[in-house]
Structure formats: structure tokens, C-alpha cells
Automatic annotation (TrEMBL):
EC class of the enzyme, as a word: oxidoreductase
Alphabetical UniProt keywords: NAD, Oxidoreductase
Record field: catalytic activity: (S)-acetoin + NAD(+) = diacetyl + NADH + H(+)
Residue stretches making up the Ketoreductase domain: 6-173
Binding locations of NAD(+): 15-17, 36, 62-63, 89, 155, 159, 185-190
Protein name, per record: Diacetyl reductase [(S)-acetoin forming]
EC number: 1.1.1.304
Gene3D superfamilies the record matches: NAD(P)-binding Rossmann-like Domain (3.40.50.720)
Length: 259
């Protein structure tokens, strides 16, 4: 399984799963374009990637802005000398009872978690077609894209939407040898879960740390997921070994949701 010398763009690369994916792909020999809305942390990840002996470049972009996503893909191609894979990883959580959801809540999360994936799909697919070669589009869904989670209803809806987009894009682009798949992590110990845990505490009175613990206790393999666990699947989906897989939303959760 190899991604050696592939040019790969990762969104949400400043921290958490995106950073973990970038480091794993760099270890495997890929050259990386690191994209995030948070410019300050990107340079540190770039240095970590370069220390592994591959090329890295950074680009600050808000994935909800179509022009910025297209510019990020152009930048990646220019700086890395090619463009082979996009990983539409950036996303935000939202913990809210459905009763309390207002139009601005929907607008904010839809624009990042759904629109951002649409722009990433479009920008990558048009680049692959312009270059006249195959390509891979890999999107972040979740266990919450397979089961709706209480207090994470709208977030779950966005992750179901990512699965739908993944299937539709796989069908639309297959004739160009572009594959489109999604990864569906479980409970990963990143800043996103710190935020989710805190919001559950505020809403339900559960002591801090207890919601995270409750979810981790429900994992069959008995431990929380790490970004490296997720990165192992993303590395496979980025490699030529996954060439015959398209339109799938693959669970990597240590045993929470069974499909
Ligand atoms: N942490 C978890 O347990 C799980 C996470 N996921 C998904 O994995 C992805 C990564 O999650 P984590 O690393 O845990 O989150 P995180 O919150 O630690 O990192 C997310 C990154 O995305 C960036 N980002 C947010 N909005 C952006 C925007 N508009 N434009 C560009 N970058 C933006 C942030 O600056 C941050 O660097 C997300 O799509 C999330 O929904 C899925 C399942 C489980
Ligand atoms: C953040 C997330 O996707 C879950 C299910 O925890």
C-alpha cells in the first residue's frame, strides 16, 4: 500500500484528525498541502511533516468559501507539482437540543460541514479532469452519519449528508476514474470531543469528562480512538490499493455502530 510521491490536500490539518492524517501520509511518502482556517497552527504541522522528509505547503482557507477552496487546490497543484487526492476533513460540532436550534445554527454548520465538502468535491474533480488522470476524494463523515445522536441532531444530519454526497459524487465521476469515499470515525480524543463534553455538561449537568467516558466505555475494543487509528483508514483510501472502492462510507470506530 503506497501513497509515495502523491500530492495530497488535507483540510482541517491544523490539529486533531487532520493533523494525524497528514503525519501518517507524510510517513508513507506523500507530499502534503495543509489547509485550515486557523493559520497560526498550520506552520507547526508543516514543520512536523517536512521533518519526515517530504514536501509540505500551507494555505489558509475557510472551506465554506467556494473560491477559497478552489484557490487551495490550485495552490496545492502549483506547489507540489501535481494533484492526486483531497481529504475533506474540516468540520465543526454542534451540541444543541433540537428544540433550541435556530436558522443561524443550521446556516453555520451546514456551510462548513456540507457546503465545504461540496466545494472540495467540485474543486478536486475539476482539477483531476483538467489534468486528465484519476483521483481520489475522501470525505469525513462519522458514526453520527450512520446513527443520529441525541443533542447532536443537526451535526448528525450533516454527516448523513456527507454520505449522500459521497455516493452521488462516486456515481457522477466514476467514468473519469475518480473515486469518492468517506471515513466514519467513532469517539476520537480531539478538541472536538473536549467541546462536545463541555456542552453536554452545560446542558445536562453531567460532570465534565463523564459524557466522553460514557461513550468510550461503550466501545467494544475498550479504548478511545486516536487520530492515528483514523489515519490508517485514510491512508488506505488514499492509496492505489483502494482503486476499486467507490461510494462507500467506511466505519472505523472500534465497535460502536455495526453496518
Ligand atoms: N473527534 C471525533 O470524535 C470525530 C470527528 N469526526 C470528524 O472528523 C473531522 C475532524 O475532526 P477533529 O479533528 O476531531 O476536529 P477538531 O475540531 O480537532 O479539528 C477540526 C479542524 O478543522 C478546522 N476547521 C473548522 N472549520 C473550518 C473551516 N470553515 N475551514 C477550514 N478549516 C476549518 C479547525 O480549525 C480545526 O483545525 C470533522 O469533520 C469531524 O466532524 C468524525 C467522527 C468523530
Ligand atoms: C464528533 C463525532 O462525530 C462523534 C460521533 O463523536
Amino acid at each position: 500500500m503506497s501513497v509515495k510521491d502523491k500530492a495530497i490536500l488535507v483540510t482541517g490539518a491544523s490539529q486533531g484528525i487532520g493533523r494525524g492524517v497528514a503525519l501518517r501520509l507524510a510517513k508513507d511518502g506523500a507530499n502534503l498541502a495543509l489547509v485550515d482556517i486557523k493559520a497560526d497552527k498550520l506552520e507547526a504541522v508543516k514543520a512536523e511533516v517536512e521533518a519526515l522528509g517530504v514536501k509540505a505547503t500551507t494555505f489558509t482557507a475557510d472551506v465554506s468559501n467556494r473560491d477559497q477552496v478552489f484557490a487551495a487546490v490550485d495552490h496545492a497543484e502549483r506547489e507540489l507539482g501535481g494533484f492526486d487526492v483531497i481529504i475533506n476533513n474540516a468540520g465543526i460540532a454542534q451540541v444543541k437540543p433540537l428544540d433550541d436550534v435556530r436558522p443561524e445554527d443550521l446556516e453555520r454548520i451546514y456551510r462548513i460541514n456540507i457546503d465545504g465538502v461540496v466545494w472540495g468535491i467540485q474543486a478536486a474533480a475539476s482539477k483531476f479532469r483538467a489534468r486528465g488522470h484519476k483521483g481520489k476524494i475522501i470525505n469525513a463523515s462519522s458514526i453520527a452519519g450512520h446513527d443520529g445522536f441525541a443533542l447532536l441532531g443537526v451535526y448528525s444530519a450533516t454527516k448523513f449528508a456527507v454520505r449522500a454526497l459521497t455516493q452521488a459524487a462516486a456515481k457522477e465521476y466514476a467514468s473519469h476514474q475518480i473515486t469518492v469515499n468517506a471515513y466514519c470515525p467513532g469517539i476520537v480524543g480531539t478538541d472536538m470531543w473536549v467541546e462536545i463534553d463541555e456542552r453536554f455538561s452545560e446542558l445536562t449537568g453531567t460532570p465534565k469528562g463523564e459524557t466522553y467516558k460514557k461513550y468510550v466505555d461503550g466501545i467494544a475494543l475498550g479504548r478511545a480512538q486516536t487520530p492515528d487509528d483514523v489515519a490508517a483508514l485514510v491512508a488506505f483510501l488514499s492509496s492505489d490499493d483502494s482503486d476499486y472502492i467507490t461510494g462507500q462510507a467506511i466505519l472505523t470506530d472500534g465497535g460502536i455502530v455495526y453496518r
